[in-house]
Amino acid sequence: MRIGTAALERWTARRELAAGGRGGGDGASAGAGYMLLAMAGFTFNDALAKGIGDSLSVAQLIAVRGTMLIVLMGVFFTIRERRGSTAVPLLEATRRAVHQPLVLARSLCELLATAAFLTALTKLPFAVLASMLQSMPLLVTAGAALFLGETVGWRRWLAIVAGLCGVLVILRPGGSAFAGTGLAFGIGCVLLSAGRDLCTRRIPAEVPSLGVTMVSVLLMTLCALAWCTLGGEWRTMSVAQLALLAGAALCLFAGMQGIVLAMRSGDVAAIMPYRYTGLVWAVLLGWLFYAEVLDLWTLVGGAIVVGTGLYTFARERRVARRAMTQPGVAVPMRPSI
To answer: Which portions of the chain are predicted below pLDDT 50?
Structure first.
């Protein structure tokens, strides 16, 4: 449910050019604050899910958290509709999105990526998995070149290769972190997340972002409910487990809304670097709650991944702005959230 960096720069360039290339300082400050909120929300959601561990199956965790999230979204957007603050009603946005094959493909990738992430979360250190996920925008850029026919220059290819080398530095082939099923699920999560964002890039601009998000949440929740029911994986939940899941749903909802507000505030180019504060939160929460201490090589690898990601975003933004100055170039008007 997070926005891939590569899906935003063209919308950003279009909006900035329409505004005469100016970005408001107050808007950028507010946007940075919203992005910090979003990354904190997403990371606290992950930390709470890790706290549940193996006490519940992945399917039950997704089902219960998803049900709580649907209730939160329904209440929040119903109130906004009554106040006239929503451009497209929630049901209408969902109806438009559910008929789009790419939305369904995106939702399937989201479901599988979430299941892989939650499984890896029980087997890998929190911050190691978070560091791996920072390479996802690089894979989106590579996938756009390989599968969508987008042009990627040699500088960005070098950045992609360097970023993947940073992932190898984190995992250190042959070491303990490179063994076991946790790594396989972590890599699967990164690849599926990149596939989700590649689908997002091709969703028609007239499909409301709210509908895309709602369809993803509904599909994940319904599939998880069916899996738990047919597979007999339901377990009685304690008050503490329900509290953790409610907190996770609330944090996830806060993260989703923070992203939306950040994208509507100021210059996205000034805001996007703050998405990497999620890695800082992961290191801090892993240390505070799970006694995880990162070694030097993990920190070095994480720095390489973050640095190459920032460079790639800067290059893609420059290319998008250059493309917008050329006649006949179509660029989506909105980010797909």
So the answer is: 1-23, 329-337
Measured in whole angstroms, the distance separating CA 185 from the mean position of its chain's CA atoms is 17
Residue 26 pLDDT? 58
| Closest C-alpha among 195, 191, 157, 194 to residue 312 | 157
333 within some domain: no
Determine the Cα–Cα distance for residues 175 and 17; give it in Å rounded to an integer: 49
| Biggest alpha carbon–alpha carbon distance for the chain | 61
- C-alpha dist (Å) from residue 13 to 87, 177, 322, 337: 23, 40, 9, 17
Q: Sign of the C-alpha dihedral, residues 82, 84, 89, 90?
A: negative
Residue 249, domain extent: 5-324
Confidence (pLDDT) at 1: 42
Can you give the pLDDT at residue 173? 65
Which pair of structure tokens corresponds to residue 226?
């069916």
Residue 168: predicted pLDDT = 87
Token representation of residue 52: 């549940």
What is the count of structural domains for the chain?
Answer: 1
Whole-model pTM: value is 0.83
Residue 334 resides in a domain: no
**101 Cβ neighbours under 8 A, 6+ residues apart:** none
